From TrEMBL:
Residues 5-28 form the C2H2-type domain. It comes from Halovivax ruber (strain DSM 18193 / JCM 13892 / XH-70). It comes from the Archaea. This is C2H2-type domain-containing protein.
Length: 96
């Protein structure tokens, strides 16, 4: 599947999730997680961080999200987890 960078108006499209994640880490500002303050690359990794480290309830409180927003992100998270190289993922989340 194609991966589109959804940060701001970027719209860059990548053939694999690794390329998209590397792009998001390099081309965009890192963000602080609203829940725990960890700085993570924006985009897919930010979603991955939030949904693997925090509960849905924490996410709703911190980001004022509704259930549709959560469903969208959970589906995306499944796609990311299924496709991404786990070593790369650990490296990108651990080296900040
Ligand atoms: Zn981008
Ligand atoms: Zn966090």
């Amino acid at each position: 599947m194609a991966w589109e960078c959804g940060i701001d108006d970027c719209g860059s499209v990548f053939e694999d999730v690794e390329s998209a994640v590397v792009h998001q880490a390099e081309a965009h500002e890192r963000r602080e997680c609203e829940i725990c303050g960890t700085v993570v690359p924006d985009g897919f990794l930010a979603i991955y961080h939030t949904f693997t480290n925090h509960s849905r309830a924490e996410y709703v409180r911190a980001y004022d999200a509704d259930s549709a927003a959560i469903r969208t992100r959970e589906e995306l998270l499944e796609d990311i987890a299924a496709d991404i190289d786990q070593e790369l993922l650990a490296e990108m989340l651990g080296s900040s």
